[in-house]
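2024-03-11 09:14:02 INFO worker-7 job=invfold-0412 stage=load source=structure_tokens
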């Protein structure tokens, strides 16, 4: 298995350079086709203006969204034209309510989605919608970039931490990450307070360790207590202690009626991550 179709979704001009600089070497190493979707989003909500103004406001905001989509596309094309990999690009204008559907349809037929950090200072409200749509509705694995001074994904992470809690989501992420995990020098399985969720408490992580070892990778298990208020803080500290290049973990929903919104622990993890996070639901 390899990643042959990689999708990235750009909704902000500031994301074009860092996201493409991360995605291009990755796609080159995988021999993959890079699909770039540029979205100009009209973030207004019709109905919140005084009588007679709605149509004019809608036209103005749609023009702004069109300008944004064109600007993102032009910047992306300028960078893509300098590369030898296979790529395609589309620019669309949409309203906020339609973003999830558009992204999900594209993600559904991609092997992997690479996206900018969705939470934190400077991130738009649509960034989290894109991540959630790709994983929950599009059922695609995603690499979420750390942004800022965080580590880029590289082409072959050498040290990978796997956050393991016996869940189906975590196992889905591990299987989606196998092409990368098989090339790593060391996989560290992190288990936090195993008695809370492990059926095999006598030897937590043994089954997963055996599965990964059979792929020819060195595997070690770290069992730690939750010594910090949030699980995400414990994971982030462990990633730093291990000097890891990537984190693999499940994406967990937080909705009684539909699993389409990332839970608080997952959001905290992505907001504070210092390495790329490969996630799947």
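2024-03-11 09:14:09 INFO worker-7 stage=emit residues=281
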């Amino acid at each position: 298995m390899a990643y042959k179709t990689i999708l990235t979704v750009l909704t902000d001009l500031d994301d074009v350079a860092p996201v493409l600089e991360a995605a291009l070497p990755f796609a080159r190493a995988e021999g993959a086709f890079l699909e770039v979707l540029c979205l100009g989003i009209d973030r207004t909500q019709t109905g919140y203006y005084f009588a007679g103004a709605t149509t004019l406001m809608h036209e103005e905001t749609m023009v702004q969204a069109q300008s944004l989509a064109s600007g993102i596309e032009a910047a992306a094309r300028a960078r893509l034209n300098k590369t030898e990999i296979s790529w395609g690009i589309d620019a669309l204008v949409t309203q906020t309510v339609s973003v999830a559907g558009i992204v999900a349809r594209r993600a559904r037929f991609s092997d992997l989605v690479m996206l900018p950090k969705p939470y934190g200072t400077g991130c738009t409200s649509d960034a989290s919608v894109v991540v959630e749509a790709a994983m929950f509705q599009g059922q695609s694995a995603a690499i979420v970039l750390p942004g800022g001074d965080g580590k880029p994904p590289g082409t072959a992470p050498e040290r990978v931490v796997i956050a393991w809690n016996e869940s189906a989501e975590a196992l889905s992420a591990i299987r989606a990450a196998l092409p990368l995990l098989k090339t790593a020098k060391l996989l560290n399985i992190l288990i936090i307070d195993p008695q809370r969720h492990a059926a095999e408490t006598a030897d937590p992580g043994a089954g997963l360790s055996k599965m990964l070892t059979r792929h020819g990778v060195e595997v070690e298990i770290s069992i730690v207590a939750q010594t910090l208020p949030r699980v995400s803080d414990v994971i982030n500290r462990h990633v730093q202690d291990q000097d890891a290049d990537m984190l693999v973990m499940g994406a967990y929903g937080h909705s009684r009626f539909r699993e389409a919104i990332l839970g608080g622990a997952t959001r905290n993890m992505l907001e504070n991550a210092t390495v790329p996070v490969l996630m799947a639901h």
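2024-03-11 09:14:09 INFO worker-7 stage=report msg="The longest strand covers residues 33-42."
2024-03-11 09:14:10 INFO worker-7 job finished
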